[in-house]
Amino acid sequence: MQQIRIAMLGSGFVAGFYMQGLANVNGHQVVACYSRDAARAAAFAAQWGIPRSTNDLDSLIARDDIDLFLIALPNEAHLPVSLQLSALRRNQVCTKPLARNRGEARQILDAA
After folding, report:
1. In angstroms, rounded to a whole number, what is the distance separating the alpha carbons of residues 93 and 111?
2. Which one of 32, 46, 72, 83 has the fewest beta carbons within 10 angstroms of its own beta carbon?
């Protein structure tokens, strides 16, 4: 069985919540995590056994070995990151709230 390779975008409460839920899911591996702060990214990676961490979002999104990006960033980052992922035709899951308002949600939907 091929494993889904996941990048976790975020290192806070929601990202930890995702990691707890993923512990009970077969067929995946979280291969990288991102945080705006390199030390937080490294600490999150160490806590959850993630092999790579970074504070360079663009280079992480550019990797061709990631199947799914989980957006667990602060709400104000959902729109720009989701639009960037959609522009590159990357698979993504965004935590709720999807966006801060209806207009942002519409932009995310239209881009997808």
Report:
1. 14
2. 46
pTM listed for this prediction: 0.92
In this predicted model, what pLDDT tens digit does every residue of 18-62 receive, in sequence order?
999 999 999 999 999 999 999 999 999 999 999 999 999 999 999
Q: Contact at 8 Å (CB) between 50 and 41?
A: no
27 within 8 A of 3, measured Cβ to Cβ: yes
Query: Which residues have CB under 8 Å from 105's CB, separation 6+?
Result: 98, 99
Evaluated on CA atoms 108, 15, 23, 38, the torsion sign reads: positive
Asked if 52 and 33 touch (Cβ cutoff 8 Å), the reply is yes
